Amino acid sequence: xxxxxxxxxxxxxxxxxxxxYLGLVGAVVVxxxxxxxxxxxxxxxxxxxxxxxxxxxxxxKLLYIATHWELYRPxxxxxxxxxQGGAAQYGGILVALPLSVPLLAALGLPFGAxxxxxxxxxxxxxxxxxxxxxxxxxxxxxxxxxxxxVTSRDRSGVWARRLPxxxxxxxxxxLLLALAVAARGSLPFPGAxxxxxxxxxxxxxxxxxxxxxxxxxxxSLTIHHAISAVMLVVCLSILAAGWLK
Length: 245
Prior knowledge:
By secondary structure, the protein is mainly α. Helix content is 65%, strand content 7%. The chain has a two-stranded antiparallel ribbon. Strands 3-4 form a two-stranded antiparallel sheet.
């Protein structure tokens, strides 16, 4: 594990924020390429993704803080500690989706078509984010003697044989990215690709969330289980309704 990516002339580059930055750059580049291929106004898509990235990162951080408040309660100043990871992807989506409605209307971009493009960027960001988790030790899997377990550390620096949760979530993102490429252009209505990939992520996140390490006494079901279940039902319901039409 490598929480500090490197140091240069007194400047410390922390692994997790560095991976998030690279993921954002990659997301914008990929989104721009897909927008061109889909015939959308690529510059407007670029502006929309750039504007939404700030609120999305803030939402992801706030949801993480809310669900890990026991880590910050003794010293709330740790919220601003840059050497710690901490972002909940669902928080970013829950903030970005509603904010995108007026923004896309102002930019003259169709809602469904935009999110069919943006989902590629989200998956790229997710892949880089999981690399950051591996380097930082956050989102560690629970200790296990399973053949699948790998020796890794948690955010406290404790090494153990653990379920490879960040690796599996990264693999899920790669699988969904491949599915998005294969399904692109073959779905019945704008927004269907976003709904399909979001449903796939929610379905995969349900078991993966249970593989994460929990603090002693914590409930086995988390808010992320609930969000995953609701997202799965909503996405599949809208997809089914759209297909029937």
